[in-house]
What we know:
Helix content is about 35%, strand content about 15%. By secondary structure, the chain is α/β, with parallel strands linked by helices. The protein has an eleven-stranded mixed beta sheet with strand order 2-1-4-3-5-6-7-8-11-9-10, with helices on both faces. One 2-acetamido-2-deoxy-beta-D-glucopyranose binds near residues 180, 182 and 183. InterPro entries: Lipase, TAG_lipase.
Amino acid sequence: MFFRGDFLIIFCACVFLKNISSLETTTPEINLLPVNYLLKFINKLENCVKRDPNLIRFYVANNLRNSSSYTEIILNDILSLQNSGLVRNLPLKVLIHGIDQSLTAQFPQDVKNAYLRSEQILTKNILIVDYGAMANIKTESQLNGFDYPICYVQAVLNTATAGTRIAQLIQFIMDNGYAQLNDTHIIGHSLGGHVGGFAANHLQTLNGGKKPARLTALDPAAPGFRPKVLPVRPMTPDDAIFVDVIHTNQICFGVLGPVGQVDIFVNFALFLQPPCVGNITLKGFLVETLPDVLSLGSWCSHGASITYFSQSISDSLSVATGVLGATGHTAILGENCSPSTYPGQYLYLEGNFNPGTYPSLRLWKPIYPDFINNALSWRS
Ligand SMILES: *[C@@H]1O[C@H](CO)[C@@H](O)[C@H](O)[C@H]1NC(C)=O
Ligand SMILES: *[C@@H]1O[C@H](CO)[C@@H](O)[C@H](O)[C@H]1NC(C)=O
Ligand SMILES: *[C@@H]1O[C@H](CO)[C@@H](O)[C@H](O)[C@H]1NC(C)=O
């Protein structure tokens, strides 16, 4: 992993190389392999993850009769807010997806659908954030395996920009009387947990230190954040009045250990959730590469936090048992977790759940042949 200083050096070198690239035809001596590789690298980075917060979209999903009908709110466009379908004096739910997802992904769709299904009349405003353009790792078809981690790093470095814009949009809604800070609940999955933390923290800055009511992080992302090897701000237990976390995949994509006030570990959240065990099959071991098989099972487990949360919306019966710091106490998993829950760590055991439609990420598969090919070409 890179450190801040390394990034600056790489970044400066890249800018320098990009500027001199126009001279390439007249100065063939710089047309060496590392130069070409770096130029290719920068161009791909620009293609895979954008950095412009104007590309973030905000959708209201308040239509009880048609859950796939949305209206869009544009920052500082009063008309778009008035026509958005937001209802005054209702609590606000803000859904923030994770890496390589967007409006149509399992998160936010499952959570939004569960909210809409659970009611006869609208009792909450649902705002979906789509920052897919700033968190994409595989849109560009020419990407090869080496680019995935690079694009991820850029998406991580975008957390502050995305979080700030989300806070500004929520502030815009509040300033016009469509939401209150003490009734705002931000829910983020994976990278979205940290983006949500940043947004919640920025709302504090905009409101003289007052915090939003709640932040729920679903298996907040580990890489880059814990250990903190990138210059980013991970979510903290102080980002909102109440911060609860559901962990499902601590050892791979989700953070290891507690990061909220109430942390619930489902099935110990070590590596594989029960329905994801099937992803690791004998055929998998024989036909796929081992890292690919592991990332499939782990990715499925990372997505399981979405399903546990979605299911919790129409159910207050999933009770977790207090362990570290909370022995003798209980916590309700997910939506109905009370802000007065005793702080600490909790364990929830669950055998059956519907794994949902979290898309598989063949993260390591393309990397592996690249390594082999490169190794072979280096030898020859
Ligand atoms: C629901 O809304 C979507 C988007 O506006 C539309 O395409 C679809 O036809 C609507 N479905 C129904 C059943 O009205
Ligand atoms: C939020 O604050 C307002 C104004 O102080 C108050 O009227 C309202 O009851 C509060 N709402 C909640 C959910 O605490
Ligand atoms: C992983 O397992 C789940 C549950 O059996 C299944 O729905 C999903 O399609 C599997 N994913 C892959 C990539 O095999």
